[in-house]
Structures
1.
Amino acid sequence: MKRIGILTSGGDAPGMNAAIRAVVLAAHHHHIEVIGFYHGFNGLVCEEHIAMAESLTLVKVNSIIHLGGTILKSARCQLMHEEKGLKLAANTLNAHNIDALVVIGGDGSFSGLLALKQYWPGQMIGIPGTIDNDLDGTDYTIGFATAVNTGIEAIDKIRDTADAFERIFIVELMGRHSGHITFNVGIACAAEQVLSFENFPVDDQQVRLLQLANEIKTAQKNRHGSYIIVIAENLWPGGAFELAKQLNKQADIECTACLLGHIQRGGSPIAKDRILATKMGVAAVQAIISGETNVMVAEKNNAMHLIVLDEAIKHQKLVSKQLIDAQQNILALTAQTQC
Ligand code: F6P
């Protein structure tokens, strides 16, 4: 008989609750108790660790599949970068007789798990939960699909007002250092420009600014109406507001900047995330029963796999070339269209 510990860590993602629920249900099916630790790794490093943990009953997870956020709360935990914190975490896990720890989170959370390996001998399983979709070995991470939908809904609304005023908007999207959200939202919203790390590296800011200004002006010669530029966060120094200011000052192009920000992290998970999270939660428990450790559950081509944790955090999963090419072709056509 095993005892599983579970926590959610880093940026919360819609579907984390669905994953918690699946782990608890699958574990109970095998007569395994699940202890939930609160506030990410803080629930492990806190000296009064008893107060930060709770046995997760079936009743506790009965009605959470539709909720955004995470019932276990989340946090980023500085102490997990220090020996003191890692030893405290190991002590807490031992005090609770935990055999296997499941962490739902992104690359930072998995780095915490890998660091803990030196101090705690139990099984460690990662479940990819981040809106950024920037973990390797899995086609999608939990929360990404909902975040993309949220971005689309928001930009559709921006489109209405942009159309009404024939305005140019620059909308900044999350994703940390990856362009998965930006590309997917941009294409689905028929954005006139998608600016991301993959297609618009800001190696020379001035050159890029002039390129963008020329493209906007060319498009405006041919057509009137709204013009939406989506941009990945951390791409342009100073972000969307700074880019809008520079376009105005240096090219006399008036733009309205808009930051979607944490709206993208919230909301009820859409079907795709609920289902992915449920499959991954069940797979995590199966991995524990099979004696696996230091792995992340992943879905590739509709089948569940286990990926070594070190491999999952290499940041090699690129936005598909097909998507980048599609945007490029559409951009060329949009610029030529006379309206
Ligand atoms: O990793 C998820 C994410 O939302 C990123 O897209 C973003 O860069 C970051 O977290 C924001 O973190 P915080 O909420 O700590 O500001």
2.
Amino acid sequence: MNNGTGRPWWHGAVLYQLYVRSWADSNGDGYGDLRGIIGHLDHLEWLGVDGIWLSPTMPSPDADWGYDVSGYTAVHPELGTLADLDELIAAAGQRGMRVLLDLVPNHSSSAHPWFVDAESSRTSAHRDYYVWADPSPSGGPPNNWLDMTGAPAWTLSQQTGQYYLHNFLPAQPDLNWWEPAVHEEFQRILDFWFDRGVAGFRIDVAHGLYKDALLRDNPPLREDNPLHGRFGLRPVHNFNQPEVHGVYRDWRKIADSYTPPRLLLGETWVSELDELAKYYGDNDELQLAFNFPFVFAPFTAGGLAAVVRRTLSRLPAGSCPVWTASNHDVGRFASRWCDGDEQRTRLALLLLATLPGTTVLYYGDEIGMLDVDVPPELQRDEMTLGQTEGQGNRDRARTPMQWDATASAGFTTAARPWLPAGDAARNVAAQRDDPGSTLWLCRELLALRRAELGGQVGPYEELEATDGLWAYRCGGLTVLANLSGRAAIWPGECGEILLAAGAEPGRSPDGIALGPWSGLIAR
Ligand code: GLC
Ligand code: CA
């Protein structure tokens, strides 16, 4: 587990996001669970990942599938017990893998005892844990903020005649980070889990937490771009407030007080890379901040190269970028970037495996799993039920892991899994039997990454290339990728070819010939 360099273990590492409810069901109730994960760790060890991030595991009424937490220091009974989690951390550790949990500090569940108390009276002990405001002079919500369903972000609480804020669902009241007691609560929560051997947290809505103290109206949105805002408004006053950085400076001190230091990986949903860079602080805030401009970049040489170049020019020296292309909200890259085309999916994996910093794969990326068109009557995500716009319905990327070709893709023995499985012809067992499969390619890529880039944030240098080609050096590697449907020539010498994806590369007096959507890694 020690990468021998004295550098943080996540430098050059690959993490695997595991949506617990959808990965492996051990008790036949149709929902994935912690014991299901323990039973399938062999897959992750064989694949060669360095760590796993578990989607929410804490008790929750599941209005937003665990992102509405009703107890921060326990395990959701449907997913297992604290003892199961301890066992999972130990079993993963024996295989050289660390475990990160998902922490949700922007809001709790309305069923959390803090909120139940807060709602009971204006003078209750926990009243100021949440954001309350009087109705506007005309009697409506206090301002124009909208929640993630497009409805007002305020719900009137009959008990006290004030509105409470919810940037997500009404069942997810926003916490009030102007209240010092909220800071103390979360510092205790961090210690509780770090003491148990949790390697770190993915921090949900890390760009949230603080809201404008004056609750000013949000300005209109100028363009239709999920990165810039939704439902016609720019979230200028309800997200990404400067005060949030103080929280991460405090948390970083806590994380660094452990051996090894614990990892803070933020879901920093901001559109500008300068804003993203701020979450690294002076290397004294988050160690990793998710890059959504990369997620939404077009799958073209120019589009991807530009985001990578700009990201690296903005992040503080010595920091570690993080690249991901799929998750439980934005969908799967094999669909969004690659339109289900296997060769493009392989090329995307090659790129993800050779960028400097940390790479996060989403479960199923390794077999090229696709978004699944879940019919409206089977959709389970309340926040995006029936939505076709923007991110669309999020269930499409939360369907069961496809282990084999049996009923329910080998995910559960239940007659019906909680969400329908996609096309089980694409599955782990079949791809394990085929050394030419995407799964084997992914494994080879991760092994190559570990050998060549493990323990370092490889210095990155973009190489000159013509239209459609993206060429770069990362650490000691040269990567050439043809992100176009036409054959292309890279006019140079790349050294020894270690791995190729797509058509076999050719050498000619003019340079290296790359087939459509093909790439190579050389040294
Ligand atoms: C994050 C999660 C998303 C959730 C939201 C509210 O964006 O990734 O799934 O609905 O936060 O917690
Ligand atoms: Ca189960």
